[in-house]
Design a protein that fits this description.
The protein is mainly α and 152 residues long. It is built from 5 helices and 2 strands, in the order H-H-H-H-E-E-H. The protein has a single domain, classed as Up-down Bundle (Four Helix Bundle (Hemerythrin (Met), subunit A)), CATH 1.20.120.
């Protein structure tokens, strides 16, 4: 099971992050590559800096959906709209400078994996309270999902 808790999985994601280019076309979805970078940044901020995102969790999301999303051996489905607070076309951070936003992504990524104990008990807007292990699994899956969106 891949997770940002494993150095090999982290290195693989970092190598793929290095290949992001502003002109990449998405295989699915509406986001540009630059918007995807801003979205991923906002999601890391949500976990490590407490970026406000409204909770839409319930008993089913905190249990069954969370288990399926984090531990079932399948890729995340495409075409699901993200939360408005992390959507760069809505209330999320809009793209400004591509190089700067990518550099920030790497800083946020390092912070996310650098102190996993700070993730312990942080609330996810859909999955509810999560352990640091669950957050590191989510971080891998979420970043992988969006890198695959752009063929990376």
């Amino acid at each position: 099971m891949k997770t940002l808790a494993h150095s090999g999985d982290t290195a693989g994601i970092l190598a793929r992050l290095e290949r992001i280019q502003p002109d990449l076309r998405p295989r699915w979805g509406r986001m540009s590559a630059h918007q995807m970078v801003c979205h991923v940044n906002d999601c890391f901020r949500m976990a490590i800096d407490g970026r406000p995102v409204r909770s839409v969790t319930g008993p089913g999301q905190r249990t069954l959906l969370k288990w399926i999303a984090l531990y079932a051996p399948m890729r995340w489905p495409v075409g699901i709209r993200t939360m408005p607070e992390v959507d760069p076309e809505r209330k999320g951070t809009p793209p400004v400078g591509f190089a700067e936003d990518v550099a920030e992504m790497k800083v946020l990524f390092d912070r996310f994996i650098g102190e996993p104990n700070k993730l312990e008990g942080v609330m996810h807007p859909i999955f509810g309270w999560m352990s640091s292990a669950a957050w590191l699994r989510w971080g891998y899956l979420h970043t992988d999902h969006h890198l695959r969106q752009f063929g990376l």
